[in-house]
Amino acid sequence: xxxxPNAITVLRASLxxxxxxxxxxxxxxxxxxxFIALGLSDLADGVIARxxxxxxxxxxxxDPLADKLxxxxxxxxxxxxxxxxxxxxxxxxxxxxxxxxxALAYHLVIGHVDMAPTWLSKANTAFEFGFVACLLALxxxxxxxxxxFDVFLWLTSLTVIGSGTQYVYVWGRKAMRARGTxxxx
Length: 185
Hints:
Elements: H1 4-14, H2 16-24, H3 28-51, H4 57-80, H5 86-109, H6 119-139, H7 147-183
Helix pairs in contact: 1-3, 1-4, 2-3, 2-4, 3-6, 4-5, 4-6, 5-7, 6-7
């Protein structure tokens, strides 16, 4: 039981190549089912880790990386297939590169990074997941295109920009405080 959340995270990450293959094959129906399973497993491992106090350093790092890997794979391949505009894919990639690069820089320059997602980051994850799931459902023929696409695209874009900006602000302030403390006599 102690390793269950981490095992779910590792399983989720190991299924990303299957998601990529399904998307490359344009099997949107199966890709949708797998994408939903990946999202639900992310929710499950988080609930289990918090409920039974099974949080680990590995999980704190691996869980968001597995999520980013799945999301980036889906967004890139959906953009390649023309379901998403490339600017949106680059926005999502840019935010994730900014967050991962910032965390790495903070770790190398300042020290220990205690990753804790903000409420805006959680909202962004929900919007990205919902938007990609709807696109996969559209590709699978479960519903038609409509004004929902533009609304979802812009709302999700705003959460991507907002959460990326929030991370820069919050972690930039932490870095400035840590550097200020370290240089005081």
